[in-house]
């Protein structure tokens, strides 16, 4: 039995399972706190490392590709505060961290864990039901259906589409990307046989993310959905439709807060600018005829 307890969290390894319990330190991200305790079987591990620093070090786990649905949808884009497979270690616990690393590495050798990707998920993913509110919408997943609801700051194309309900059978892919710099992030559900090049800002199957604190919670929803879809190595897994979109300009929308309510009125000039923007997206082929028509009608109703 090997155990290391830090403000960042507690890792315990019994030779078969590595248990990860998030700490209560302010540096622990909302995703890790919400995800809770993880039980990682040794067969899901690929490697472990320990990096020493002057004031603190870091334990880092690497899982086998395809073993964890959370890593499958985040593609290494989680920041340190949100990544459950990193642990900050105080300098006076370096000896314990090195012992912990030796115990895990010895188990990997004894069990002869293969280094190649896993052909099935070895972790169950986030528990359901799971829900998150961030950016311009709220997404809920009950294990069978995804429900998307729009906030007041969503574009007219989404508001006009109304509440969306998608079953697992409807989905070909799910993607999560964090906001980076001036580029907004998104959670996108690709609907089977209905590819789109519309930016997440206008796509009624996507939530646009503005880079606020709750954005990583959308990754939990994505992981819960991904865990219940066919594994990428499965021959039945359909090839995801091309949904890559050009980066959209920052919305400049402030983080939604309780009681913020709906704007008191529409700015006529702003609506005209949006209408011109939609026309340009349609002419360039990014928006389909139906998507452009739906968004245009929604704006004209408010002029």
Short précis:
The protein has 303 residues and is of the alpha+beta class. 25% of the residues lie in helices and 26% in strands. The N and C termini lie far apart (68 Å).
Structure description:
The chain has 303 residues and is an alpha+beta fold. 25% of the residues lie in helices and 26% in strands. The strands form four sheets. The chain has a four-stranded antiparallel beta sheet. Strands 8-9-10-11 form a four-stranded antiparallel beta sheet. A hairpin with a 4-residue loop joins β5 and β6. α6 packs antiparallel against α7. The longest helix has 18 residues. About 10% of the residues have low confidence.
Which descriptors apply to this entry?
four-stranded antiparallel beta sheet; 26% strand; 303 residues; alpha+beta; elongated; 14 strands
